[in-house]
Every structure is written in structure tokens, then in C-alpha cells.
Amino acid sequence: MPSSHLPHKIVLIAFDGAQMLDITGPMDVFAEANTACEESGRPPAYEIVFAGPRVGLIPTASGVELNAKVSFFDENLVADTLVVCGGRGARMAADDAASIETIGKLVDRAKRVVSICTGAFVLAATGRLDRHRVTTHWKYCDTLARRFNAIEVDADAIFISDGKYFTSAGVTAGIDLALALVERDLGRPIALEVARELVVFLRRPGGQSQFSAQMAADASAVDPDRFAELTRWMADHLSDDLSIDALATRVSMSPRNFARRFAAALGMPPGKYAQALRMDAARRLLTDGEVPLAIVARRCGFNSLETMRLSFQRHLKVAPQDFRARFHHRGAPSRAAMV
């Protein structure tokens, strides 16, 4: 924190038709961090400002209107952390030259710049994300990549940090990113207190997939409950034998019949499902801990470290050690962004 104890100014900007949780989710995280600071005898860490294209009520996609006390066109507006919130209005604002020029100037003056969901379209339109890695809501990743081909879009991550730029996936991922920023700024105990107050996990790792293996399977499944007990067991026994023969024996079916029925019910073969479970688990361990790579491979059921390396290269186009370098979180507060 600055020696003068001046609060770090967070400006959240949104447009007509914004996704309300993109605004209120991170805003509540920062507000609860202030409360936690005060309860521990510290001054409030953040000054929180909501800005719109004009002063007054800004309609959200849910129909609720939020009151912007300042316009982001105000020449006197400055932000230590600038947060661009997503929604239909953000995607439309990416085509508005006046908005993009103004936001570009705010970006240049800010110490830290954040986009929530499709707020990434606005930042990309300013050109400031060129040659940076970013993410957004899974539904719009391909569109973002096609429209702004100078940026590198990671369609799978929950949130990404690259330099002073922080981008998150859709909706609730903004809460994950805000909690990660609080942990950087104020330390783990404050972030944990905020998470407890909001009844959420302290932090889903940024490198965690936007979809777990189970969610991906459910999305294409015809009968997701058909093997629910088995898939729960698989997730808890990744280092066991998850071959078709072993799984078929567990459910008292012939291997051929089991493989056919599993694929029909869940939309993917048993082997592919087991591989996805193992990849999910490995990503979590690499992101959130210091477990050696060989032990990660063994715990997650890969036959060897080389097998895990090949799986990461095939599915994520990155080696496990490079994935850890990108996403590993050590929990130490970073004062730089708060000064």
C-alpha cells in the first residue's frame, strides 16, 4: 500500500446492456476487501468508482439499472486499476471510435488493466492488447481471435495475466480474477476472508479450464446419469487402471458393450474421458502448488512424466513446466500494482 495510505482507485466501466454480474461480482469483492481491512484495523484499500458512457442509470442485460456517478469521457477521470466489464454493450462499443479512443487513454494512464468477459473486445479494439495473451467468454473466443488477429486468445483459461493486462472468462470468472487481485494486493488472509464472506472458493486457478471434463461431457451427453457413479469414482481414482477392460469389469459389462454404451451416453469414449479427467487434475496441481512434475504425473495417472508431457503438448500446445510458469500462483502479495 502507498505510504500515504491513499486508497488504490479502481474504476469499473460498463456500457448499456452490460452483464450485471461482470460489474457487481468484482465490485463486491473489492468492497468486501475494504471491510476486511477495516475490521483488521487497516484503512480501506480501494476507492471504487463505477463509470458509464454518461452519468446516470446504465441498463444491464437483466433489466436492472446501475447508477454511474461519472462518465468515462470525463477528462479528469483516472484509474490505478481500470476494469472493463462485458456484455452485449461492450461488444458493440468496440465499434465506437469515440469510446475506444477515450478508453485507450485511460488504459495508458492505468497501472493495471482488467477486462471481464467480453470487455476484452473493448481493450482489443484500442490496440493495447496486441501481442498479449488474453481470454474471454468461451462463446466469443473464436470471434475475438478472428477480429483481432494480433492478440493470442486462450479459449480455455479462466483468467490470464500478461504484463499489466488481466483478462477473464465469462461472468463468475470475474470474481475469481478479482479475488486473485486482492490476494496479490493485500495477501492471502484478506482474500480468504473476502471469499468466506461471499461464500465462494478463494481462487480457482487462472489456468483451470473454463469447462471441467465432467461439464464438457455433460454438454454433449445424451444420458449423463447413466454412468454417474462410475465417472465420480474415476475422478477420485485417477492413478488406478482406467482402461476399458478395468472399467467394464467394474460395471459388470463386456468391454465392447461398455465402450459403446459409455460413448453413446456421454458423447465421448471412455479413454478420452479418462484423459480429460487426468488433464484437469494435472492442471490444478501445476497451478496451485509446488508438487514436482514427476509426482504430478503419477498422482494423475499418467504412465510417466513423458506421457504427461506429450498429453500437454497435444491438448494445450505447451509443456507442463511452461504451463506451470504461466499460471502458477505462489500467493505472495505484489505491492507494485498498489503503489
Automatic annotation (TrEMBL):
Pfam families: DJ-1_PfpI, HTH_18
Entry-linked InterPro entries: Class_I_gatase-like (IPR029062), DJ-1/PfpI (IPR002818), Homeodomain-like_sf (IPR009057), HTH_AraC (IPR018060), INH-QAR (IPR052158)
Stretches assigned to the HTH araC/xylS-type domain: 228-326
Keywords: Transcription, Transcription regulation
Top-level taxonomic group: Bacteria
PROSITE patterns reported for this sequence: HTH_ARAC_FAMILY_2
One of the record's GO molecular function terms: sequence-specific DNA binding
Full protein name: HTH-type transcriptional activator RhaS
Taxonomic source organism: Pararobbsia alpina
Lineage, opening ranks: Bacteria, Pseudomonadati, Pseudomonadota, Betaproteobacteria, Burkholderiales
Gene: rhaS_4
